Each structure stands twice: as structure tokens, then as C-alpha cells.
């Protein structure tokens, strides 16, 4: 196959600059390929650029690739100044870029505005048409004007969170603050404004504002605020837009609210019932170590992470795989129920990896850790271990695991240090040697005379 020669050019279509890579076969790639050498220069040239961070081995990335390219092709011939780009985050030379944008899984898609000075998460569809429509909405006005009851009914709907500002006139500090926040949060919420509250379907219709009314498909259905301080208004939206009560099901429109519910710092009560169809709740049952025949069951999780079961048959409150009967491999298997004994109380220097079986980075690190473990087999003071963080609870008050793999060294004296270096055998060994403690050898007991 003939190798492709990248040719950077600017094609202006209604003032839209689109860089295209053209191969010898004439195929045009509308998605820009970025790396450490051209990332900053390219991003600063564009007012609105979408960047996908991907890994070649990632199945989701492979499925997204043709849709992403098709969307870029469609957008290249539109009036909207939107450019799509991609970065291979699996390459070490691009690691600094990935860390800057907090890439912890694949694909991660970021929306960069105003030369990269404003960054937000892409939360739209992954099909070409859905990508195009979602991004077009983000380039229009941050808030839509509602001029009639029909406008309001169509905009608000029955299954989403929307924010509507009611104003006596479209000017003044309150209106400007509302628009500024709408522009900031437009990736997460839909905003609208109106001069007449009578157009709105719920709540008091005689108010003239200024006020902000948040509509939602749960709890009290709507809530108002008259505080137009930008920070206070953002806090109001974030708190009011999270459900106090929701249903755990497979309905796509309900998924964002389930995520918000589980992401809330508040204590949670979950009622598991004997439904005829339990498919939707299987993941929750498995996560908390519950079984279908235990329902009905009221489950309480406190902010400290403690789980309590209000039921006669009480399973362990920690989600844990069974403790291995045989654990003779060089890299020792740790589960939640053996974490204290093998790591905390072992009196050894323990290098512990938190991993996910599906994680490509973890798969690459596995043989390296095994080599390291073999090299330390004659050193009784050092233990190399791993814990499947998808099958075991991780003590969040001790270990900060936000991505995979996450590696810590717990020294013999209890000092905890996270490893953030390169994933090479020598670098990890150097890290162990730098942070390990010498373990005092006990004197053999003497027989009393």
C-alpha cells in the first residue's frame, strides 16, 4: 500500500478553515491528525475544534472512527466553523497532552473553544448525524428565545433538564450573567429566555422576573432562583439538576440522571424490589454484591462509603472477589477482603496495581510487573501485587483511583506513594528502591535456662 503524504492546506468555505490530509490515492481525511508537534499550533488557530483522544486497540474508538470522519466531512461543507481532530493518546510522545486534558479512558472527546482557552466535555451521540447536529447546536446562540407557548412546550419537553430565564427586558446585569453561564454550561444543559412567564408550562405564570426557572422530569418538576451571581447560579443549576429520587432503568433519557444520582456526595437509599424484569438493575445488584432473591431490600450507602443492608440475610458490606486459595504467581492477587492482610499489615514494601481487565494500558503493564516480581522473588521485604478495581471495592479514603492502571507503593512503615513515572521495568524498580523501607529482622528467640 502506498504511504500517505500529509499535505496541510486551508480550504475556506464560507470563512471556514478546514485542514485536509490528502493521500496519493486522492482520499481526503477531514479529521485532522494531531500530536505533540502540532497540537498547540493547530488548536490556537481555531475558534471551535473538537479533539478525540483515542487508542488504536480500543474497540469503541474503532467503531467511532468512520462516524467521526463522516461527521467531519459533512461539517467541512457547512457554514458552521467546526473542525474535528484526533490524537493517539496511546503514544508516549502524546502523554503530556493526554494528562493536560485528563484523559482517563477511550475515546475521550473534548471541545476546545477560543483557541483552546475554553475546554468542555463532549457529551453527544457517536453517530455521524448525531455528532453533526449536537455540534451545530453548540455553535449557535447559547440561549434560545421563547416567543410563544408552543415554543416553550417544544423546548422544555418531558424528559430533560432545561433552564429558562424570565426577564422584563433582554438587557442588564442579570441577563448578561445568565448568558455568560449559558455559554459556559451549554455542553451540559439547554438554556432559553423569555419576556413572558405565561408561555411556560409549569409554575407561577404571573412573574415578570428577573428569575431563573429550572425544569426537570423528576422530584418537584421545577424550581426557581433569583440569585444572578454567576457562581451562585451555577451551583443552583448543578444541585437542582441532580435527582433526589430516580428510577434505575435502561431508559436512555434517564441515564444522565442516574449518573448524577450516583455521583452525588449525599447519603443514598436504594430500594430493590421484586420486579418481573430485573435486567435493568443487574449491574447495580452485581456492584453491591446482591442477589435477585434478596429483594425486596432497602440498601443504604453513607457519604463515608459504608454500606448497610436492611434485611435479615446480610452479605459482606465490601464488594470483594473470593480470596484465592492458591496465590503462588510472582504478582500476588489481592482482593478487597485480603487487602489489609496482604498490604496494610504485611510489614513489607508492597507495590500495588489497581487495574481493569479490559484496560489496554493494564494489559501492556502486566508482563512488566511480572518481570519486576520475578526479580524481587529473593527479596522477602518486597511484594508485587494487583487488585481488579472493577471486581473489588477500593478504599477511596486511602487510594485515589480515577483511571487505570493506578500504582501505589506502600512501604513497610506505612508510607503511601503513588507512582507517576514511565511504565518501564527499570523506572518502576528505581521507584521501589527509592521509597522502600528496610525491614528490621527479628532476632531468633533464645531458650531460657
TrEMBL record:
<dbReference type="Pfam" id="PF00085">
    <property type="entry name" value="Thioredoxin"/>
</dbReference>
<dbReference type="GO" id="GO:0006457">
    <property type="term" value="P:protein folding"/>
</dbReference>
<comment type="function">
    <text>Participates in the folding of proteins containing disulfide bonds, may be involved in glycosylation, prolyl hydroxylation and triglyceride transfer.</text>
</comment>
<protein>
    <recommendedName>
        <fullName>Protein disulfide-isomerase</fullName>
        <ecNumber>5.3.4.1</ecNumber>
    </recommendedName>
</protein>
<keyword id="KW-0676">Redox-active center</keyword>
<keyword id="KW-0256">Endoplasmic reticulum</keyword>
<dbReference type="GO" id="GO:0034976">
    <property type="term" value="P:response to endoplasmic reticulum stress"/>
</dbReference>
<dbReference type="InterPro" id="IPR013766">
    <property type="entry name" value="Thioredoxin_domain"/>
</dbReference>
<keyword id="KW-1015">Disulfide bond</keyword>
<comment type="similarity">
    <text>Belongs to the protein disulfide isomerase family.</text>
</comment>
<feature type="domain" description="Thioredoxin">
    <location>
        <begin position="5"/>
        <end position="140"/>
    </location>
</feature>
<keyword id="KW-0677">Repeat</keyword>
<feature type="domain" description="Thioredoxin">
    <location>
        <begin position="289"/>
        <end position="437"/>
    </location>
</feature>
<dbReference type="InterPro" id="IPR005788">
    <property type="entry name" value="PDI_thioredoxin-like_dom"/>
</dbReference>
<dbReference type="Pfam" id="PF13848">
    <property type="entry name" value="Thioredoxin_6"/>
</dbReference>
<dbReference type="InterPro" id="IPR036249">
    <property type="entry name" value="Thioredoxin-like_sf"/>
</dbReference>
<dbReference type="InterPro" id="IPR017937">
    <property type="entry name" value="Thioredoxin_CS"/>
</dbReference>
<keyword id="KW-0732">Signal</keyword>
<dbReference type="GO" id="GO:0003756">
    <property type="term" value="F:protein disulfide isomerase activity"/>
</dbReference>
<keyword id="KW-0413">Isomerase</keyword>
<dbReference type="GO" id="GO:0005788">
    <property type="term" value="C:endoplasmic reticulum lumen"/>
</dbReference>
<feature type="signal peptide">
    <location>
        <begin position="1"/>
        <end position="23"/>
    </location>
</feature>
Amino acid at each position: 500500500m502506498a504511504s500517505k503524504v500529509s499535505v496541510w492546506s486551508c480550504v475556506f468555505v464560507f470563512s471556514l478553515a478546514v485542514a485536509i490530509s490528502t493521500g496519493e490515492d486522492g482520499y481526503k481525511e477531514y479529521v485532522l491528525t494531531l500530536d505533540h508537534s502540532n497540537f498547540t499550533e493547530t488548536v490556537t488557530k481555531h475558534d471551535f475544534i473538537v479533539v478525540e483522544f483515542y487508542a488504536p486497540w480500543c474497540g469503541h474508538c474503532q467503531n467511532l472512527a468512520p462516524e467521526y470522519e463522516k461527521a467531519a466531512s459533512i461539517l467541512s461543507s457547512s457554514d458552521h466553523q467546526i473542525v474535528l481532530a484526533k490524537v493517539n493518546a496511546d503514544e508516549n510522545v502524546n502523554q503530556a497532552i493526554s494528562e493536560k486534558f485528563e484523559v482517563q479512558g477511550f475515546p475521550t472527546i473534548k471541545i476546545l473553544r477560543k483557541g483552546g482557552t475554553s475546554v468542555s466535555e463532549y457529551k453527544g451521540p457517536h453517530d455521524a448525524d448525531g455528532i453533526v447536529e449536537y455540534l451545530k447546536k453548540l455553535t449557535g446562540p447559547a440561549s434560545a428565545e421563547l416567543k410563544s407557548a408552543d415554543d416553550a412546550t417544544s423546548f422544555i419537553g418531558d424528559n430533560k433538564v432545561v433552564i429558562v430565564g424570565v426577564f422584563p427586558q433582554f438587557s442588564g446585569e442579570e441577563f448578561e450573567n445568565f448568558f455568560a453561564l449559558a455559554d459556559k454550561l451549554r455542553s451540559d444543559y439547554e438554556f432559553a429566555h423569555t419576556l413572558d412567564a405565561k408561555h411556560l408550562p409549569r409554575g407561577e405564570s404571573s412573574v415578570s422576573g428577573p428569575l431563573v426557572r429550572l425544569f426537570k422530569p423528576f422530584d418537584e418538576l421545577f424550581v426557581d432562583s433569583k440569585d444572578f451571581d454567576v457562581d451562585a447560579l451555577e451551583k443552583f443549576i448543578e444541585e437542582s439538576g441532580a435527582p433526589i429520587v430516580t428510577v434505575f432503568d435502561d431508559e436512555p433519557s434517564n441515564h444522565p440522571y442516574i449518573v448524577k444520582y450516583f455521583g452525588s456526595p449525599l447519603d443514598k437509599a436504594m430500594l430493590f424490589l421484586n420486579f418481573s424484569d430485573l435486567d435493568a438493575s443487574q449491574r447495580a445488584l452485581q456492584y453491591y454484591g446482591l442477589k435477585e432473591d434478596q429483594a425486596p431490600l432497602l440498601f443504604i450507602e453513607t457519604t463515608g462509603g459504608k454500606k448497610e443492608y436492611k434485611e435479615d440475610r446480610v452479605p459482606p458490606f465490601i464488594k470483594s472477589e473470593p480470596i484465592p486459595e492458591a496465590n503462588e504467581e510472582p504478582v500476588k492477587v489481592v482482593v478487597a477482603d485480603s487487602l489489609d492482610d496482604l498490604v496494610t499489615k504485611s510489614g513489607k514494601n508492597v507495590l500495588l496495581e489497581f487495574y481493569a481487565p479490559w484496560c489496554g494500558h493494564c494489559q501492556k503493564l502486566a508482563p512488566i510487573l511480572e518481570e519486576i516480581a520475578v526479580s524481587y522473588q529473593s527479596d522477602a521485604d518486597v511484594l508485587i501485587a494487583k487488585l481488579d478495581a472493577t471486581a473489588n471495592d477500593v478504599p477511596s479514603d486511602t487510594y485515589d483511583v480515577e483511571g487505570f492502571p493506578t500504582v501505589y507503593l506502600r512501604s513497610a512503615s506505612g508510607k503511601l506513594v503513588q507512582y507517576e513515572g514511565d511504565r518501564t521495568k527499570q523506572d518502576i524498580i528505581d521507584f521501589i528502591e527509592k521509597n522502600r523501607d528496610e525491614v528490621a529482622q527479628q532476632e531468633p528467640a533464645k531458650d531460657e535456662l
